[in-house]
């Protein structure tokens, strides 16, 4: 349809059906998508291209980990000796060490094992998980000096956005805090590097009502909730403030404590 009234008056009269068909065909004509904030966006018959959607839960696999490179060269003194317990990997660690694990240099080997948690290969990740758990359980007192070197491998495992890898990394983190002396308090300055992914997956859980979930260790939301409670309990008085800064929806399970008021004897 012409917007000029003079040209519209000179044009011969057309039936309403013809006008509706012209409007319909004109509306169906594809418009050219152009990028935003350009001169092309001012042209007729164009549509500004919308911004791309970002999938925050998209997996970001690691191409190759340091642990896998060392395994291919034969520099890791441990091999798998059988199957592990799927319910609790800390109970059964089917590993065969080629030397005494307590004699290893934890500053060198423990970060390599933790780095293997981000590997996409199941066998490699299982070897790294069981090896890291075995090293931590054998000598918990050696974890604290190595703690600054473990932050980057744990952060790399969290950034993969893979639920299985995140759960494995959180299990190792819980074990370090539970067994290692003063590890919980030493982790407080590193909450900003580690707890960013917890804010994304914290609410991904299953509402069972009055039921009990036997597979709590496989639910990423429940594992994150248990990890945050453990970090708050073992991190001292400043742990809750730093956790709340990274995970605003977290509610304290330690402070403040609900205590009955003392009765005064009058």
From TrEMBL:
It holds the Pfam family ParcG. GO terms for molecular function: Hsp70 protein binding; Hsp90 protein binding. InterPro entries: ARM-type_fold (IPR016024), Parkin_co-regulated_protein (IPR019399). It comes from the Eukaryota. PANTHER family: PARKIN COREGULATED GENE PROTEIN, PARKIN COREGULATED GENE PROTEIN PARK2 COREGULATED. This is Parkin coregulated gene protein homolog.
């Amino acid at each position: 349809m012409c917007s000029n009234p003079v040209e519209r008056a000179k044009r011969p009269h057309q039936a309403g059906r013809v006008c509706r068909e012209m409007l319909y065909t004109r509306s169906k004509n594809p418009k050219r998508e152009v990028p935003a904030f350009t001169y092309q966006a001012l042209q007729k018959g164009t549509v500004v291209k919308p911004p791309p959607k970002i999938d925050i839960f998209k997996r970001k696999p690691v191409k190759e980990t340091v642990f896998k490179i060392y395994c291919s060269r034969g520099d890791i003194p441990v091999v798998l000796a059988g199957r592990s317990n799927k319910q609790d990997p800390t109970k059964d660690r089917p590993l065969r060490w080629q030397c005494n694990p307590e004699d290893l240099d934890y500053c060198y080997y423990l970060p390599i094992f933790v780095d293997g948690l981000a590997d996409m290969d199941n066998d490699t990740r299982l070897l790294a998980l069981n090896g890291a758990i075995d090293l931590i359980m054998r000598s918990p007192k050696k974890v604290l000096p190595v703690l600054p070197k473990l932050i980057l491998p744990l952060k790399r495992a969290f950034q993969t956005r893979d639920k299985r890898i995140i759960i494995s990394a959180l299990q190792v983190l819980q074990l370090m805090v539970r067994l290692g002396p003063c590890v919980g308090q030493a982790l407080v300055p590193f909450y900003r590097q580690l707890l960013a992914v917890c804010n994304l997956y914290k609410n991904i859980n299953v509402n069972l009502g009055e039921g009990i979930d036997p597979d709590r260790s496989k639910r990423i939301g429940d594992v994150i909730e248990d990890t945050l409670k453990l970090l708050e309990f073992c991190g001292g008085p400043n742990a809750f403030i730093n956790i709340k800064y990274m995970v605003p929806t977290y509610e304290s399970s330690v402070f403040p404590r609900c205590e009955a008021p003392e009765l005064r004897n009058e």
